[in-house]
From TrEMBL:
It comes from Mangrovibacter phragmitis. Its main location: cytoplasm. The gene is ksgA. Its EC number is 2.1.1.182. The keyword S-adenosyl-L-methionine applies. InterPro entries: KsgA/Erm, rRNA_Ade_diMease-like_C, rRNA_Ade_Mease_Trfase_CS, rRNA_Ade_methylase_Trfase_N, rRNA_adenine_dimethylase, SAM-dependent_MTases_sf. Keywords: Cytoplasm, Methyltransferase, RNA-binding, rRNA processing, S-adenosyl-L-methionine, Transferase. The keyword Lyase does not apply. It holds the Pfam family RrnaAD. Belongs to the class I-like SAM-binding methyltransferase superfamily. rRNA adenine N(6)-methyltransferase family. RsmA subfamily. Transmembrane segments: none annotated. Specifically dimethylates two adjacent adenosines (A1518 and A1519) in the loop of a conserved hairpin near the 3'-end of 16S rRNA in the 30S particle. May play a critical role in biogenesis of 30S subunits. This is Ribosomal RNA small subunit methyltransferase A.
Length: 273
């Protein structure tokens, strides 16, 4: 049997389609999400409904965002879900989650077994809407979950860790083997819960500056800050900020990156690089 066909649908690689087929894993994810009537749940990539059905059973209404036209059409005629669903047949990367939360009159609870090919840019897109989001539960490549939760001093710690932890509390939920999907992906997967901080622990004055610093530092993660950030900070300035310029990007905490960004926002470098 062609293992790319699931419930009569041929899985499309370009849409990152790996459908969950393991009932125990599905139930574990749904109980981690713990959907309650009246909440504004939004699923990204409902696919053939592996999570949509058990979540939808517990709710009166559910919003889904599905790029694949055929799958969106199937959901439109789903025997018991259809009347509960608001279906956006569009790219989740173009979804305005703030507008959606406004329509729903409450913060969103976003979840999904995400297409792995776009999961990192999609996370960054969602981070820009954390004011409109109560929490998020995502199935991701295990390696991406490791990066989201990583702390300083580890190999997995990078720009994604800093930005995720700037916005959210990040909690790993469960690991999922390839066999839980049809077709099985080539990598291990894991579910993560992200809860946007009610009050940002280290607010920055300009996010673009935090982005710029973390990009510059981690793009050259083997170099010391003296070298990778030399055009933005003198070693003396870093010392004043309590950051040793002999450190590498992976040894700098989220709080320190934010402090550096705030310094730069107030003291822009005279010579742009
Ligand atoms: N939720 C289903 C499950 O667990 O079996 C399907 C998960 S599958 C990994 C990813 C789903 O996201 C597919 O249904 C795919 O068509 C959809 N998708 C892919 N790219 C998308 C995008 N940019 N925006 C919204 N949905 C997308």
């Amino acid at each position: 049997m062609n293992n790319r066909v699931h419930q009569g649908h041929l899985a499309r690689k370009r849409f990152g389609q790996n459908f969950l087929n393991d009932q125990f894993i599905i139930e574990s994810i749904v109980s981690a999400i713990n959907p309650q009537k009246g909440q504004a749940l939004v699923e990204i990539g409902p696919g053939l409904g592996a999570l949509t059905e058990p979540v939808g059973e517990r709710l009166d209404a559910l919003t889904v965002v599905e790029l694949d036209r055929d799958l969106a059409a199937r959901l439109q005629t789903h025997p018991f879900l259809a009347p509960k669903l608001t279906i956006y047949q569009q790219d989740a990367m173009t979804m305005d989650f703030a507008e959606l939360a406004k329509k729903q009159g409450q913060a969103l609870r976003v979840f999904g077994n995400l297409p792995y090919n776009i999961s990192t840019p999609l996370m960054f897109h969602l981070f820009s809407y954390t004011d409109a989001i109560a929490d998020m539960h995502f199935m991701l490549q295990k390696e991406v979950v490791n990066r989201l939760v990583a702390g300083p001093g580890t190999k997995a710690y990078g720009r994604l860790s800093v930005m995720a932890q700037y916005y959210c509390k990040v909690i790993p939920v469960l690991e999922v083997p390839p066999g839980a999907f049809t077709p099985p992906p080539k990598v291990d997967s894991a579910v993560v819960r992200l809860v946007p901080h009610a009050t940002l622990p280290h607010p920055v004055k300009a996010l673009n500056i935090l982005n710029r610093i973390t990009t510059a530092a981690f793009n050259q993660r083997r170099k010391t800050l003296r070298n990778s950030l030399g055009n933005l900070f003198s070693p003396e300035t870093l010392a004043e900020l309590g950051v040793d310029s002999a450190l590498r990007a992976e040894n700098v905490s989220v709080a320190q990156y934010c402090q550096m960004a705030n310094f730069l926002a107030e003291n822009p470098p005279s010579q742009e690089s």
